[in-house]
Amino acid sequence: MKYMVFSHGHPTFSKGGAEIAAYNLFKGINELPGHECWFVARCTDNILHLGSPLAAINEKEFLISGNADLTHLTSTIRLGDNSEFAELLRYINPDVVHFHHYINLGLEMLYAVKRTLPNTKVLVTLHEFIAICSNNGQMQKTNGTLCHTYSPRECMQCFPNKTPEDFFLREQYIKSFFRNVDLFISPSEFLRKRYIEWGIDENRIKVIENGQRIETDLPPREIRSEEKRNIFGFFGQINPFKGVDVLLQAISNLTSKQRRKIVLEIHGANLEYQTQDFQKKVKRLSKPLEEEGAIRWVGSYQPHELRDRMANVDWVVVPSIWWENSPMVIQEAMLFNRPLLVSNIGGMAEKVTHGVNGLHVPVGNANAWGNMLIRCTEEPGLWETLHKGISKPISYIECAKTHLNIL
To answer: Domain Glycosyltransferase subfamily 4-like N-terminal, which positions (predicted)?
Structure first.
């Protein structure tokens, strides 16, 4: 089978979980006998050849231009019969074209594939709620309140300059392109149900978890007999949705004696790209905690560095304040045998079983997070129990086989 994977970014230039998941699928299919896969990733124009919307990295990997923003999701390159896009499709002539996201690329590509290759199957992996929600696809109001269902009238509360009709028309516009999709993939049951409620037929959307690389077991951090399992690791983007500020507030609320019992390592970047208010909040909370030694800013990391980073922590924390779908860091923590503390909503609550391989914490509740950090360092046998309950996540090879088997 000839298979093409389109991604909204290439892991070489963009390290997001969705980009890595798409690339893992590409690798996995190519490692299965009798199958070939090509990878096409959107990138910024300065990386492409001057004047061309398409460039080859090698025989199986291509870069494509595009800037379909979150508001309109409209393709910005030519997609007609004589376009470079159509020529690439005809050159490869795939049996399947799989879009691992459509932001940056544009919804029109779904139709363009069907027009150019009518017998080719089109698959789409859904990563957030962008089709449902105009507020960064997070189903969270601009005031931080979580949305439990789609409603054009409720959407107006986030965008008062628009009308319910505007959101209704956006919905119909997106669904008109989704009619070109033969099958949707959701990495979580939670996200699948949200899209079914929105209008996707339940028979057209399947759950397949994103595949992970294959790793040998990572031993627990070596500790002396008098030491505790007290090092917590945050891995990911530093932005208002990921909950780093909740953790910092949680630790700040502890007594000085309690703070001496724990260490939070923050492995991440991009704080400088956030709003000034958020940057100031994070810096205000973190400065005294750094001086006390309660937190360590470790910085950004490359995927190949993750094993060494996780070797130095006992727990992985995912304090996101929005629903999430299937955070890559949860699978990565399980890959490296680290128990998890996660917010008790959405894909996080689905992927981590409370009391088995991790613990749930009330979302956004700094006091609850502080209490849980202390519990994890003081309760005898808790880490060992949760460590034993961890199962390896699906590998990228198994993930690729599952994708092929559903066709």
So the answer is: 16-211
What is the DSSP code (8-state) at residue 144?
A: S
CA distances, 363 to each of 19, 28, 235, 240 (Å): 26, 35, 17, 13
CB distance 21 to 210 below 8 Å: yes
Tell whether 225 is covered by a domain: no
Total-model pTM: 0.94
Check whether residue 78 and residue 208 sit in a common domain.
yes
pLDDT in tens, 122-137: 999 999 999 999 998 9
DSSP state of 356: T
- 306 in the same domain as 188: no
pLDDT of 14 > 90? The answer is no
Contacts of 72 (CB under 8 A, 6+ apart): none
Edge-to-edge strand list for the sheet holding 205-207? 54-56, 61-64, 36-42, 2-7, 96-100, 121-125, 183-186, 205-207
Q: What is the CATH classification number for the domain harbouring 122?
A: 3.40.50.2000
Q: Tell me what pLDDT residue 15 has.
A: 78
**Coil, helix or strand for 330?**
helix
The phi and psi torsions of 403 (rounded to 5 degrees) equal: -60, -40
Q: Considering its fold, how many domains does the chain have in total?
A: 2
pLDDT mean over 60-64? 97
Find, among 62, 52, 58, the residue nearest to 88 by Cα.
62
DSSP bridge partners of 140: 146
Q: Which residue range forms the structural domain that includes residue 372?
A: 231-388
Please provide the DSSP assignment of 39-82 as one string: EEEE--GGGSPTT-SEEESSSSEEEE---B-TTT----S--STT
Distance in angstroms (rounded) separating the CA atoms of residues 151 and 168: 9
| Token pair in block for residue 324 | 């999430």
The answer to whether residues 141 and 117 belong to one domain is: yes
Q: Strand 358-361 vs strand 340-343: parallel, antiparallel, or unpaired? A: parallel
